[in-house]
Specification:
Blueprint lengths: L1 E3 L2 H18 L4 E4 L6 H12 L9 E4 L1 E3 L10 H10 L9 E2 L8 H14 L5 E4 L21 E4 L2 H8 L11 E4 L2 H6 L2 E6 L5 H9 L17 E6 L7
Parallel strand pairs: 1-10, 2-3, 2-6, 3-5, 6-9, 9-10
Antiparallel strand pairs: 4-8, 7-8
Helix pairs in contact: 1-2
The structure holds 2-amino-2-deoxy-6-O-phosphono-alpha-D-glucopyranose (GLP).
């Protein structure tokens, strides 16, 4: 585990890992997270790309998950997030980007197509993950089996409450989401788990126990042969 103490170091460390992956394989298949945790990473990748230090022009981009029912044109969708933060600023080719379609009329067909697109490209090279408060990775909620693949899942009450607490959300949280499965994550050649935020303490403690436990889906990463964790550990504020 790499532990850093400032947001800038956090973004730099994550961007260094992504840049190294892209250097070794410019056409890397990346599976990317949404949420507040990766914001600095994406800003740093855009900065480095504009400065000519790294390039995502050949990368193939997938996202980890999506709200069931939200069209990618909905500004609250994960697809809109990835576009706004990364693929539009980087001017990536449309056909290099495949994001889950939350409003797909046939969810099973959407999941099957997603799996096929990833498989056709040779699988995921680098899967970057945030950490849910309850230990979820992507939308693999507690109890998800290690052999799950892309599917529609029911969101837990705590995940829904956290969505509704997002500034500007202003509607009931979706009941379901699309997500890559734990198996898809474990099949990636490399994983990077990013941990930031004081609400992640319980999930982090589960990881540090070092025991694989489906009650804490992030602990599935303990069995991955090439897994990196970068943690932003901010000093406690004085009262
Ligand atoms: C959502 C996403 C996860 C993400 C998590 C953490 O639940 N489905 O993929 O990791 O939020 O969000 P944040 O980075 O804002 O803490």
């Amino acid at each position: 585990m790499i532990r850093v103490h400032t947001a800038a170091e956090f973004s730099q460390a994550a961007a260094d890992l992504v840049a190294a992956q892209l250097k070794s394989k410019p056409r890397s298949v990346l599976a990317l997270p949404t949420g507040s945790t990766p914001l600095g990473l994406y800003a740093e990748l855009v900065r480095r790309s504009r400065a000519g230090f790294t390039s995502l022009a050949e990368a193939r981009i997938f996202d980890l998950d999506e709200y069931r029912g939200l069209a990618s044109s909905d500004p609250s969708s994960f697809a809109a997030f990835i576009r706004a933060r990364l693929t539009v600023p980087l001017v990536l080719a449309e056909d290099h980007v495949r994001l889950l379609r939350g409003d797909a009329p046939d969810p099973a067909a959407e999941c099957a197509d997603y799996e096929k697109r990833i498989a056709d490209l040779g699988g995921i090279d680098l899967c970057i993950l945030g950490l849910g408060q309850n230990g979820h990775i992507a939308f693999n909620e507690p109890g998800s089996a290690w052999d799950t693949r892309t599917r529609v899942v029911e969101l837990s009450a705590s995940t829904r409450a956290r969505i509704e607490a997002n500034a500007g959300w202003g509607r009931p949280a979706p009941t379901h989401g699309f997500t890559l499965g734990v198996k898809n994550v474990l099949e990636a050649r490399q994983t990077l788990l990013l941990i930031a935020g004081r609400d992640k303490l319980a999930a982090k403690a589960a990881l540090l126990r070092g025991v694989q436990d489906p009650a804490w889906p992030a602990t599935s990463l303990l069995r991955h042969p090439n897994a990196t964790i970068i943690e932003l550990s901010e000093p406690a504020r004085s009262q």
